[in-house]
Amino acid sequence: MKIDLNKLMPPLGLGYALLDPAWQIVECEMDVIPETGREAITGESIGSAFPELVGYEPILQQVSDGELPRFKMENLNREGPKGNLVYFNLEVVPTEKPDTPLVVVLSDATSLAQLRQHIRQQQYEMQLLNRQKSGLRGDSETLLGYSEQIVALRNLIEKLSGIPRVTVLIQGESGTGKSLVARMLHGEQKSPFVEISCASIPENLLESELFGYEKGAFTNATTTKSGIMETANGGTLFLDEIGELPLGLQAKLLTFIETKKFRRLGSTVEKHVDLRLVTATNRNLEAMISEGKFRQDLFYRLNVVRLVVPPLRQLGEDVLLLARHFICHYNLEFNKQIEDIDESAREFLRRNSWPGNVRELRNTIERAMIFCSNRVLTAKDLNRMQSEQEAANTRPRFDIPAEGMPFAQIEKEILINALQMANHNQSRAARLLHLRRDALRYRLKKHGLLSEENDLQEQ
Amino acid sequence: MQLQKKICLLGMYSVGKTSLIERFVYHRFSDHYLSTLGAKVTKKSLQISASDGQQIEYNLLIWDIAGEETENKIPPSYLLGAAGAILVADLLRPETIEALPSVLERFKEINPGAAVVLAGNKKDLLQDIESDSKEILRLAHQLKLPCHLTSAKTGCQVDSVFSALASSLLSRDEANQVISPPKKKAKTRQAKDQKR
Question: Contact B152/B123 with Cβ under 8 angstroms?
Fold first, then answer.
């Protein structure tokens, strides 16, 4: 029975191309997928009509010889004339006819493929966003920058992170990233990283937080609780702001460092833990030792290796790198599309002394991005807070010289300022200084500021 | 002389395979990320001089194959009959570089004699090229493969990476005597014949 492919295939939504033994097209119907084919391709070689099959000649031969039952490729796509993508499946099937041994069957896969593409697009975008976010905040966080100090610090951290039990003291100004350094030292181990700020917990609670307590150890100890020393067992304990640790606890910590043992509050049983101790401070511990506020012996125990995190003002062009990093971060956070910073902003970033370091820079960028509606951040965007502060600070200031100055002189200057602000209206000047008008006049007279002109103006 | 070759662009998703092809074939770039599903074939001719000075025109059938999270998900049928491949990684995503050896292994299982070149893409986004390209260059050295740092956005090194692959194809075709062997060898043969 002769099957007329032209009558069979199109009603099934299929296109086809019948091939001769030299893989030339002898008959075809491609209307079901108009964008993939041309009007007439009869007589063309298979490779010319279907570039997707170039290189597959041995496979075609295998199908023709019956060594392979059929050969199929799914989701091939071509660009249609309007730029739209058309997806199709292609299947090479034997016909068992010597003069036309193969037929290439095409089926339109666009609708299903578009759905799959859409899902895949969402999945990949989510993965990329999550990766970006975790890169900004997560475990893979690292000290950004290429300045000499940062590169040296990164190298040192890398070396130290391979030595699991070495005690490290991190010093640096507030906002430089001491906590980040501690996390980097810990690395991406599965062991615990426990962080506690000695300044954030009241002195009377700090001891129980660190060492834990037994039920009944004190009035409200209704249950037994393990401390963070135990939680950090096998990992890293990071004590931030170690300079704020009360003297009494300093002695306990010293004992723990020396013996690796401690007792919970209210317990007589010694517990042993094995952890890496990392501490950080922005205080000058040597100065605190000389003032009797920090134990020298503890300092020596903590200061086995000291890492100094440099302030942002010393990091040169790294400030620009960090600014761009935060822009990426807040673009994700605020769903914005700020691309870069202009020259004025770069100059502002370089010129600023950043007393609050990276934390201040981060807040500056965050604030600027909240209000910025353009694609590029300018110095004006970054300077918003400073301008507001400057505007708020326009009230007169009196700088007292080192040698001191008489109070009468200060009083006189205040009176002059008030008169100027009130446009020499005494009633208004009095209100500005929260004085009665008579009281103001008395003081003006005392300082020889009540001229006839003033009086006349007033009257 | 004209030769038709199938080449594949392989690598994880969103490394810029489609963008590299768009840049190389149509000289255009779009920031908009559109993930590829399946495979798309694009044609482009590239002329290259053989060692005997003969101009060889390679009609490249460039297969843009959807990047997958794992190389196992790529249907082998897409890779069949390829003469070469460009393995692409995103220089900013280390995992895309780490994925390349297994992608290479999979490709070579199907096409053992094929030419391969590495491309570290998105060079324009690097802050410190030397440091950020260290990994892919180390891998290229380890795998003994040529490597180009490309940017589909700026066009940097895009033509070079395709030319490098074409050069590798040419070397193979010369070695397999698909095209006339290099002159030097011909001379040696002539000399031998004369001696006889």
Answer: no
- The nearest alpha carbon in chain B to A71 belongs to B77
pLDDT tens-digit series, residues B36-94: 888 999 999 999 988 888 889 999 999 999 887 655 678 888 999 999 999 999 998 88
Which has the closest alpha carbon to A454: A427, A435, A436? A427
B6 contacts in chain A (CB < 8 Å): 54-55
CB within 8 A of A175, min separation 6: which ones?
A312, A356, A357, A358, A359, A360
Question: For position B54, what pLDDT does the model report?
Answer: 87
Q: How many CB atoms lie within 10 A of CB A2?
A: 5
Which residue of B5, B17, B37 is the best one to mutate when testing the A interface, meaning the one whose CB has the most A CBs within 10 A? B37
B195 Cα to chain A: minimum distance (Å): 42
A13 in contact with B, Cβ within 8 Å: no
Give the residue-averaged pLDDT of A314-328: 88
What does the pLDDT read at residue A32?
65
Q: A407-421 and A437-446 are packed helices; what angle lies between their axes, rounded to 10 degrees? A: 120
Of B35, B40, B61, the CB nearest to A124: B35
- Which residues of A fall within a CB distance of 8 Å from B127? 146, 321
Decide: A149 and A315 in contact? Cβ < 8 Å. yes
Q: Spell out the domains of chain B, with CATH numbers in brackets.
A: 2-195 (3.40.50.300)
In chain A, the domains with their CATH numbers are 5-113 (3.30.450.20), 148-310 (3.40.50.300), 313-392 (1.10.8.60), 407-458 (1.10.10)
Model confidence over A336-383: pLDDT tens digits?
888 788 999 999 998 888 888 999 999 999 989 888 888 889 998 888
On whether the CB atoms of residues A239 and A277 are closer than 8 A, the answer is: yes
* Mean per-residue pLDDT of chain A: 83
Gap from A28 CA to chain B (nearest CA, Å): 21
The alpha carbon of residue B31 is apart from the nearest alpha carbon of chain A, in Å, by: 12
The beta-carbon neighbor of A55 closest among B35, B37, B80 is B80
- Give burial (CB, 10 Å; 0-12/13-18/19+) of A192: middle
pLDDT at A240: 93
Inter-chain touch A113–B37, beta carbons under 8 Å: yes
Residue A394: pLDDT over 60? no
The number of beta carbons lying within 10 Å of the beta carbon of residue A238 is: 27
Pick from A51, A73, A131: which is nearest to B43 by CB?
A51
Which two tokens mark A26? 């002898």
The rounded radius of gyration (Å) of the Cα atoms in chain A is 39
Across the range A166-195, mean pLDDT stands at 89
Q: What is the pLDDT of residues A202-246, one digit of tens each?
A: 877 888 888 888 888 787 778 888 889 899 998 999 999 999 998
The reply to whether residue B40 touches residue A79, judged by beta carbons under 8 angstroms, is yes
Within 10 angstroms of residue A13's Cβ, the number of other Cβ atoms is 11
Best of A107, A124, A337 to substitute, by most chain B Cβ atoms within 10 angstroms, is A124
pLDDT at residue B191, rounded to an integer: 52
Place of tokens 């249907």: B75
* A-contacting residues in B 126-155 (Cβ below 8 Å): 127-128, 131
- pLDDT at residue number A237: 93
Is the Cβ pair A117, B33 closer than 8 Å?
A: no
| pLDDT tens-digit map of B88-126 | 999 988 889 999 999 999 999 999 999 999 999 999 888
